[in-house]
Amino acid sequence: MSVKSSNNRIVRLIILLIILACIGFAGYRAYSGAQGGSRAEKTMDTLMNIIPGLGSDSDISTGLGRDPLAAISIDGVDIVGVVEIPALDIMAPVTGKNYTEEYFASWLDGSPVQGNFKILGGRDDLFRKIASLKPGDRVIFTDIDGVRYNYSVTTQYHLKKWDAGDNDLQLCYESDGDTYFVVGCSGE
């Protein structure tokens, strides 16, 4: 066997290994994404049994809830409520502060009672389509006590992480290390 044919076989083997590694990584990402979605779905099933009227579009805010938000623990995750974005067919659990997991949203700051309420979602999963929201689209947050807050989309912008913003509700995802992409909403 010549050195050239031996080198060709080694190159083909390396290419095959790279292809198999890429397929394996893609499979792992799909599996872990499905697991995250599955966990969020199980959490939503539990919340549907706990929060009366969740998911029914009444078009009416139901008053003011507790401030700070109350939380319940479901499978070791503190949940403060549910965010619904009908235009994007999103209904997702909102976790307590500083918790992030795929297909869950996370409460960053503010509150629905005081304003400047920030909810963070993943740019590659839950909030991947929020940039397509238009002024007037509805967003609903229902807290763990069943108090419903209705909002209307008003604007989109970028916000430095340390700034508060100036909307009743801000749906955001991290656009780079220092900045959030924000969809600003006003309470109805």
Q: Termini distance?
A: 78 Å
Q: How many individual domains?
A: 1
Order of helices and strands: HEEEEEEEEE
| Structural classification | alpha+beta
Oligomer: single chain
Tell me the name of the CATH homologous superfamily.
Sortase
* Order of the strands making up the biggest sheet: 2-3-4-5-8-9-7-6
Description:
The protein has 188 residues and is α+β, with helices and mostly antiparallel strands. Helices cover 26% and strands 36% of the residues. It has an 8-stranded mixed β-barrel. Strand 2 (77-85) and strand 3 form a beta hairpin. It is elongated and about 80 Å long. The termini are far apart.
Write the layout of secondary structure elements.
Elements: H1 3-50, E1 72-74, E2 77-85, E3 90-95, E4 105-111, E5 115-120, E6 138-143, E7 148-160, E8 169-176, E9 179-187
Parallel strand pairs: 3-4, 5-8
Antiparallel strand pairs: 1-2, 2-3, 2-6, 4-5, 6-7, 7-9, 8-9
Short description, anyone?
This protein is an alpha+beta fold. The chain has one helix spanning 3-50, and strands at 72-74, 77-85, 90-95, 105-111, 115-120, 138-143, 148-160, 169-176, 179-187.
Supply the key terms.
single chain; 188 residues; Sortase, Chain: A; 9 strands; alpha+beta; elongated; 1 helix
